[in-house]
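Appendix B. Worked example

We walk through a single record from start to finish. Start with the input: the chain for U three protein 23, Candida parapsilosis, length 296.
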Amino acid sequence: MRQKRAKAYKKQMNVYHYTFKFREPYQIIVDDEIVTTCQKSSFDIHKGLTRTIQAENKPMITQCCMQALYDTKNQESINLAKTFERRKCNHREAIAPADCIHSIVDINGENKHRYVVATQDLQLRRKLRKVPGVPLVYMNRSVMVMEPLSDASAKYSEEWESKKLTGGLNDLQAGKVVEKHEEEEEKDDEEASGALVKKKRKGPKGPNPLSVKKRKKGEATNGDQEGGEKKSRRRRKHKKSGEMQGHEGGESDDGDGNGGEDMEDRVNDTGDRIVNETVENVPTQDTTHQQEIDQE
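Next comes the structure step. The output line below is what the pipeline stores for this chain.
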């Protein structure tokens, strides 16, 4: 294939790709006549289609076209056609191959399944030229050729390009000020639809027990708390022996003459029991001095 013709084919396939949303591998419908023509001229149809389309492709043949090949009793053409993928045409009784291909390609004036058609039938190609977005391939002597863009395809491509450029400027809804209550209604609808689609998340319902901080010993239990408030107790401190010696004449802190006995209530961490501790009498400086004189 010449370089100039290859560039033209590549440009055409780009139009079909971007405008009509063709995707690889391209599906190519092959009829019985082109199979017979390629078999007589010893032309490799698989390589020819790949070289013409310049992309990955998938040749397909309908059951009606296979029946037409069976009627010719050309075993070599039948074996070649069996290498293609079979496309169901849903015709209970075999009809003419041209009518079969036209029925599966032209669906309400549109190439819905995005087929590339390879056929030698001139009448079929004339019909398919009126349908936008149908690439046509045929054999010219021993060369496979792709037809240029049809008038319907070129017109559709131009309109599609103009819509992309001026569609937003000519749109009546463009620049419309949306009121607040309309925005709120739209948000509510989106949230309602999102709530239905949202799936239930799997996971622990409560906190991870390993991450929970342990309770300290000094903290009160639920039984010790009344009215949601924690009981507070004031603890008393002991007076040291040095402080007790600072008092003159062995004066005692208690008026009962108990020798400085100090009764203190101590409460343990749980607050369940009370222990009374007595501070022993501490000898003063005067009594210590009298004992030394008696020893002498």
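Two observations about the output. The domain at 1-9+22-154 is CATH 3.40.50.1010 (Rossmann fold). The radius of gyration is 50 Å.
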